[in-house]
Structures are given as C-alpha cells and as structure tokens.
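Reviewers asked in the last cycle whether our approach scales beyond single polypeptides. To address this, we selected a multi-component target totalling 335 residues and predicted its structure end to end. The input consisted of the following lines:
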Amino acid sequence: MKHVTHIKDLGPEGVEAVLAQAAAWKQKGPEHALFANTLLGMVFFNPSLRTRTSFEAVMLRGGGNAIILDVGSGVWKLEHREGAVMNADRAEHLKEAAPVLSRFVDMLGVRTFSQGGGDEEDELDPVINAFRKWSTVPVVSMESAREHPCQGLADMLTLRETFGNTKKLPVTLTWAPHIKPLPKAVPNSFLLSAAAAGCEIRVAHPPGFDLHPAVRAEAEAYAKATGGSVTYTHDQDEALAGSRAVYAKSWGPTAAAAFSPNDVSALLASYSGWMPTRLTMSRAQKDAAFLHCLPVRRNVEVADEVLDHPSSRVVDEAGNRYHVQRALLHWMRSR
Ligand SMILES: NCCC[C@H](NC(=O)CCC(=O)O)C(=O)O
Ligand SMILES: NC(=O)OP(=O)(O)O
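The resulting structure, written as structure tokens, was:
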C-alpha cells in the first residue's frame, strides 16, 4: 500500500515517473478505464475549487466514482490527537473514522490545512499523518499543513510544457502580499518538486518569512541528486534576474503564532511592494512564464496586468491538476 502525502513518498524518481505518465496520457489518453470499480473517498477539512473538481473528474472520467465528505458539514467533526479527552465539538476520532471509511472506498484523499500552531506543528503534519496511520487504504494528499504535492506536480508539468525541460531551468519562487497569513504548503511543494525536477530555484521573501529548515534541507538533497540548485534572497529583483518563470505565492511569517492578528496584518501590509506587476515581470527574462496555484486575490497578491497577460499560465497550471492526479493515482495503485 502506497500513501502519497509528501514529495518524499515519490522522491525524484517517482516525480519523473508520474510527470512522464501525465504528459503521455495528456497527449493520448489511456486505452482502458483506469479506475473502473474504484471509489475515491475525499475528506475536506477546508474549502477547494480545483482539487475537488479535478480529483472527482479523474475518477468519473476514469470509470470510477468519488464520495466527497466535508468535515463539520454533514459529517462529524474529527479528532486526530491520540489520548484526547473529547469533551468539545469533535465527536469522532480518526482511529475509528479512517478505518471505517477504508471499508467503503479504495483510496482516501485528504485536505487539511495548517491548524495555525506554527511551523514546527506543520512540520509534523499531524492530521494527514493520523490518516496515514489509521487508514487501511492508500492516502493521497489534497493539501496538508506541510505540503500540497499534487500542486507541485502540476506546476512541474506546466513548466515542462512551456520550456520542454526543467533541468537547470531558472525559476523564481517569490513571496507575495496578502491580507492574512497563508500556509506554507504550496511554497514548500513548489520548492520540493522543482528541486526534484532539477530546476535552478531562487526563493525570494522578506526577512522573517523563511521556509522551515527541514524543507530547505530536503530541497537541497533533491537538488544535489538532480543537478538543480536552490538559493535564497530577501531581494526580489536579484532573484528575478535571468528567471524564465516566476511563481508567486503568499505565506505567513515564520513565527506567525507569536504575532497578534493586528501585528500580522501590519507586517503583511508593509510588504505590499512585493506584489508582482508588469514591472516586476520585466526584471525576469523577456516573456517569463507566470504561475500561481490559485485562488489568487487580484491586485493584493498579484496585479491584474500579470494575471491577464499572455505569459500567465495559471489556468493551464490548474488544468494540469487533472493530468498529474490521474497519473499519480494510477502510480499509487500499481505499487
Ligand atoms: N490550495 C491552494 C491554496 C490554498 C490556500 N489558500 C487560501 O487559503 C486562500 C484564502 C484566501 O485568499 O482567503 C493556501 O494558501 O494554502
Ligand atoms: N490550487 C488548489 O489546490 O486550489 P483549490 O484550493 O481550489 O483546490
């Protein structure tokens, strides 16, 4: 049984295999119904547009089906902490819920964002790891506290379609402003996937927004294995020079839990100049591709003129979620 909740479940070789299969099936679909008689259970602790529809589309078009559960909305609120005294609003423990769901479905997808307990807690990824522990069917991440691997895979497929190859491709992952501190799962996944795909990655963010050292160390190890590289800077312009693709994403400060909400808002507002505009894009290579995982807050996180420019790949990038997830679910089941 193969769970895929983190890029390390695939490693650079698994990333290559899934991307190659996704690209091949995007050209010419599989000859048979990949997911006939297969049920995917999808457990959402948080909202979604792309993940929900792309996974369900993969199952329905592949001859299977999906059962979608929204935790706390028609489904009991779920506890994941071992030894918890369940005297508040969570009526059911994952120790029962995960094996019970496993009786009915063949695979389980889980979306569970950061609980807001800080980077160390996110690093432990407690909820998705509880699903891994108690589920008796393969678990796939639909974004958890630490990572959003399917997003990272779709990002890499998009870069390969745009540039033919990702080996030593100069790409910038830039922090962008927002009205609230967002999770680090998406920047973590872009970094890890791009390192596993051999990119030359420049990460730019204001001081105090560092990604977790364990994520950086993991990216470094992948880069070493694939001939890629990763550098970090607080200077967006420096990162952009020579970049062929720009990936924008907002995330919260490293010590978010230590800030009051007002202080976080003030901090985020003080970096409004980090919002990508055409001027920002002009500092990268001519016609550099623009990527973002979506949803995006226009004119806060990214300017209209960037999202509406022909070099924006954000819709194709979202469309690629279908292709990488179809290949990934197949890869998981063949293990
Ligand atoms: N799945 C893609 C991104 C999900 C999430 N964005 C958000 O929560 C945006 C919410 C807002 O803009 O209010 C994130 O950043 O990890
Ligand atoms: N990019 C992404 O995962 O989008 P949703 O949150 O809409 O699923």
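The longest strand covers residues 39-44. We regard this as preliminary and will revisit it once experimental data from Aim 1 are available.
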